[in-house]
């Protein structure tokens, strides 16, 4: 895989059982790139370590006054120089390719897993952790994957040089062969402590990222309640904890680096001291002493890769563990069924609550618990947060449909929809049946004033559809974001559209017009609206009351207002005292004035609804 071939047609199925297993799977997935990097690394390192032998031969040729051997040695030096240049260039290319392709594979896997889990992801993993994994952790994982081949080339080169020195000059070669493993293994006792400190730093950095992400997401609310300073102090403390942990980790790695400098220096002193003795005794030639000395000096170059691989693993291990945790998450239900890919049609039924949504009708669901309503909406869309009985569409369990078919059949719009940054045209460019145009959807969602506001804010855009929308639509009000999200959902024209509080942030007059627009545009299509707004409820073909997780009443809005106290309590915001007084007062003993007052109140409510409908 080359960089120009990215993204991967299929990133594969990762081994997410643990962080090390995930790293091993990534390495095996790009075996060809690893072998290329290893080959170029061997050429580069062996060429570098071949220089001392050439220098030693040259010095000995000068001592022996042999011009022919000096010319031959010059040719070997040129050959080593060419090997160094070519090997270094191609090693860098291969290493960067391995790093980028590994990081790209992880990003693709994370993106697919995020799309698979949907909104359930942020309930099972903090949003800041997802951000940390998809940014900084991806880089560290790629760093370790590409460093493995360079480390392997460096280790093989060191073994080759030690063997060569033992054969070339046994008296000094044995000292080098014994000392180099000591150099490589001397830092092992310090690695566990360095790894723990690196893990602590990464954990604190992840918590700080989560805090920053949550603060930015709720910045508008924080400004409204004056909580910026409180969260700023919390982030400042978290940032200082990260700084302290980073300093402690850096101190340990500086000690390891110091050992990597000190011990090779001591080895070099021992080699020179013993070599001078042997040369004084006439047991070795001057050229041989220069060769061994130069070889020991240049061995520090490949030895540095031992420190790098230890650091790369220490930093990538917690990153790989977090990535494996995200990648190991799955939908609460199995989406790989044996059903055909075509999406079924018919009634939507939830066995857990008993909710039945007839095909082709606008069904409103009233639930006093907003959280329970959100969970039910996700279950209707085939995205349950926990395992439960599957929802049936036309008698077919959504869990047995392929994920793409299930999402084509049922579309769920959350109560807090997300608008991606870009132009309005790009925002509304979504997979659709083609039956609903952009203009029809914008009109039904009452987005006229939103288009005017975008046109005024974007001086460079002649067409409001080319106006830019900032990240998550933060430049828009809550009602404007809600209406644009509703228009986007209407354009897709799914078989079943589930709307969770689609008009909670708009005024009553706009809400009435939206209700009429949605009813008209979705005529003959199945639509489910979770709401407690009388304006939407009055236009529904069917109203369902959910109480304690089960269907408690079914009917029309005006019928349920009079006949169902629990429904009236949710829709009219009736207090417990009023409900108790109503239930404790026998109808036959109730004063005439009370009965008349209730009738007048009901008539006033109906008259107000009719007046709003006429004005809309």
From TrEMBL:
Membrane topology: Multi-pass membrane protein
PROSITE patterns: ABC_TM1F, ABC_TRANSPORTER_1, ABC_TRANSPORTER_2
Keyword Transport part of the UniProt annotation: no
GO MF terms held by the record: ATP binding
Pfam (any one): ABC_membrane
Residues annotated as transmembrane: 38-63, 69-87, 147-168, 174-192, 253-273
Alphabetical list of SUPFAM superfamilies matching this protein: ABC transporter transmembrane region, P-loop containing nucleoside triphosphate hydrolases
Residue ranges constituting the ABC transporter domain according to the UniProt record: 324-573
Main location class: membrane
InterPro entries in UniProt: ABC1_TM_dom, ABC1_TM_sf, ABC_transporter-like_ATP-bd, ABC_transporter-like_CS, P-loop_NTPase, Type_1_exporter
Subcellular location per the Swiss-Prot or TrEMBL entry: Cell membrane
Keyword Magnesium set for record: no
Disordered: annotated segments: 573-592
Keywords, alphabetical: ATP-binding, Membrane, Nucleotide-binding, Transmembrane, Transmembrane helix
Domain ABC transmembrane type-1: 50-306
Listed name of the protein: ABC transporter ATP-binding protein
Upper classification of the organism: Bacteria, Bacillati, Actinomycetota, Actinomycetes, Kitasatosporales
């Amino acid at each position: 895989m080359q960089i120009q071939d990215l993204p991967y047609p299929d990133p594969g199925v990762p081994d997410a059982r643990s962080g090390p297993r995930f790293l091993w799977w990534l390495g095996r997935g790009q075996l060809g790139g690893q072998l290329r990097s290893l080959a170029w690394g061997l050429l580069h390192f062996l060429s570098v370590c071949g220089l001392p032998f050439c220098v030693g031969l040259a010095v000995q040729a000068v001592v022996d006054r042999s011009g022919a051997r000096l010319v031959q040695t010059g040719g070997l030096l040129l050959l080593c120089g060419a090997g160094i240049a070519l090997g270094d260039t191609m090693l860098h290319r291969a290493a960067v390719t391995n790093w980028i392709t590994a990081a790209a594979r992880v990003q693709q896997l994370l993106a697919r897993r995020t799309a698979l889990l949907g909104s359930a992801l942020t309930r099972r993993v903090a949003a800041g952790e997802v951000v940390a994994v998809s940014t900084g952790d991806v880089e560290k994982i790629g760093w370790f994957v590409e460093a493995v081949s360079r480390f392997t080339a460096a280790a093989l080169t060191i073994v080759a040089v030690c063997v060569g020195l033992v054969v070339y000059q046994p008296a000094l070669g044995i000292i080098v062969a014994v000392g180099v493993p000591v150099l490589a293994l001397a830092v092992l006792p310090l690695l566990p402590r360095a790894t723990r400190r690196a893990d602590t730093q990464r954990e604190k950095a992840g918590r700080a990222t989560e805090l920053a992400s949550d603060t930015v997401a709720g910045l508008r609310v924080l400004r409204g309640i004056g909580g910026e300073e409180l969260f700023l102090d919390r982030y400042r403390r978290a940032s200082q904890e990260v700084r302290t942990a980073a300093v402690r980790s850096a101190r340990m790695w500086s000690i390891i680096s110091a050992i990597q400098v000190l011990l090779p220096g001591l080895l070099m002193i021992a080699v020179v001291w013993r070599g001078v003795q042997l040369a004084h005794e006439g047991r070795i030639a001057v050229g041989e002493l220069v060769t061994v000395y130069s070889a020991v000096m240049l061995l520090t170059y490949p030895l540095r890769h031992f420190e790098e691989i230890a650091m790369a693993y220490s930093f990538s291990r917690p990153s790989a563990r977090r990535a494996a945790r995200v990648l190991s998450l799955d939908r609460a239900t199995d989406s790989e069924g044996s059903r055909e890919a075509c999406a079924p049609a018919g009634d939507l039924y939830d066995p857990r609550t008993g909710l039945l949504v007839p095909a082709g009708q606008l069904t409103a669901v009233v639930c006093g618990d907003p959280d329970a309503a959100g969970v039910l909406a996700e279950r209707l869309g085939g995205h349950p947060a926990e395992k439960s009985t599957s929802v049936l569409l036309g008698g077919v369990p959504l869990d047995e449909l392929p994920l793409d078919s299930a999402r084509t059949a049922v579309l769920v719009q959350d109560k807090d929809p997300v608008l991606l940054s870009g132009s309005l045209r790009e925002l509304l460019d979504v997979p659709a049946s083609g039956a609903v145009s952009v203009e029809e959807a914008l009109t039904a969602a009452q987005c006229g004033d939103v288009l005017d506001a975008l046109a005024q804010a974007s001086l460079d855009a002649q067409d409001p559809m080319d106006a830019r929308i900032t990240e998550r639509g933060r430049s828009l009000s809550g009602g404007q974001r809600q209406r644009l999200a509703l228009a986007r959902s209407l354009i897709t024209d799914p078989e079943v559209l589930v709307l969770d509080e689609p008009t909670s942030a708009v005024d009553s007059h706009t809400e009435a017009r939206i209700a009429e627009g949605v009813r008209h545009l979705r005529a003959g299509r199945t639509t489910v609206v979770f709401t407690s707004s009388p304006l939407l409820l009055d236009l529904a073909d069917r109203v369902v009351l959910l109480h304690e997780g089960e269907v408690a009443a079914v009917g029309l809005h005006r019928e349920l207002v009079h006949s169902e106290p629990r429904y009236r309590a949710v829709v009219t915001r009736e207090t417990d005292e009023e409900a108790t007084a109503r239930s404790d007062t026998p109808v036959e003993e109730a004063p005439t004035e009370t009965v008349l007052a209730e009738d007048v109140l009901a008539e006033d409510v109906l008259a107000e609804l009719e007046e709003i409908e006429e004005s809309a």
